[in-house]
Amino acid sequence: MKTAKIAELESFIVSEKVEKYELIRRIELLEKEKAECGLAAKESLHKCEAQYKAMLESVDAHMTLVDRNLIILWANEKAKINFGHDILGKSCCEALYGKKELCCDPSSCLTRQAFRNGNTAKRHSMKMKSKNGTGMYFEGTARVVSWDNDGKPSVVVKIYKDITERKLAEEKLRNNMKQMRKNLDGTIQAIARTVETRDAYTAGHQRRTTDIAGAVAYGMGLSKQVIDGIRMAGVIHDLGKISVPAEILSKPGKINESEFSLIKQHPQAGYEILKGIDFKWPVADIVLQHHERLNGSGYPYGLKGEEILLEAKILGVADVIEAMASHRPYRPALGIDDAFEEITMKRGILYDPDVVDASIDLFTKKGYQLH
To answer: 55 is in which domain, residue-wise?
Structure first.
């Protein structure tokens, strides 16, 4: 004789599209029904268990039922195909992870977490070994579906969604991105060297400015992504100088006003070259703005205050420090002390106060030295 719950369960149409949480709810109902069937006629119990098995086998996922001792009581065919038909009676640690002993860290065990909290535990990515030793990645859910007479969790259903293909695709994408970054870095370095071959006196200037700017940004607690953008822009911040006649760049003695006006065009020239490149950072804008100043006295657009990117403010201060501390064709090196005096005297006027403070700390407290 059918109970009302068995009649209800027989009306379910199980397909591969059954939602995970709906499936778990049905399993809980079936576990409860099994307990009730144990008090009913034997044929009802068989009917209940047959329906249980039919439901679980129809799902396109790796599924197991595990007891409190972490022993696998049942597994659907998909799980057996991947992990072996002999997994019943084994611990899930041995059958799914190839471990001879139970997991020593309960906090890392999905099943133990479910038993401990009496509800559901999830893991977005876990690696298991198939029966042929191949590593596979799964998204796992474990949920208590049965309790003993004392109300303690007794059985957990574990549902594993195979995400191996997705993980391999992500890994391939990461590798491709690394290679692209490597290629981009190589291209940027080649561009930087091209600029420096036209201006022998500033050879190494871009590299040293980049090192200072990166260290200052790190000292300010900026994110790795922001620091990477500063470094990328720093290496080529004088790219636009390829549009300036070489005789002006290497001219000994004082540069006249018309010559300086040509030099002042280099941020714009660099921007025009870089603006069409799809960087993941605002490299072109940083290059364009690295000679802008807080009070609007900079060039090429006379931007003020917050109109200037923080990255450009950092690069601008680093550029001043390196330029003043190094030799130029029109003057000998002024030295680091003069550079500090410049940025300190004009702190909050030309240069961002936080950037100036971080730059001074870099050299005086952290022992940074120009190389």
So the answer is: 4-163
Q: Which amino acid is at 357?
A: D
Check the CA dihedral 184-208-245-297 and report its sign: positive
Tell whether 93 and 156 lie within a shared domain.
yes
Q: Are 28 and 145 in contact (CB under 8 A)?
A: yes
Burial degree of 66 (CB within 10 A; 0-12, 13-18, 19+): buried
Predicted local confidence at residue 52, as pLDDT: 58
Token pair listed for 237:
């911040």
User: CB atoms < 10 A from the CB of 231, how many?
Assistant: 20
What are the pLDDT digits (tens) for 331-346? 666 788 999 999 999 9
Q: Answer yes or no: do 216 and 349 share one domain.
A: yes
Last residue of a domain, one of 163, 198, 227: 163
- The verdict on 138 and 177 lying in the same domain is no
Longest dimension (CA), the chain: 108
Cα three-residue angle 355-357-362, rounded to 5 degrees: 95
Asked if residue 227 and residue 144 are part of one domain, the reply reads no
Whole-model pTM: value is 0.58
Same domain, 75 and 16: yes
Helix intervals (H) in 105-163: 110-117
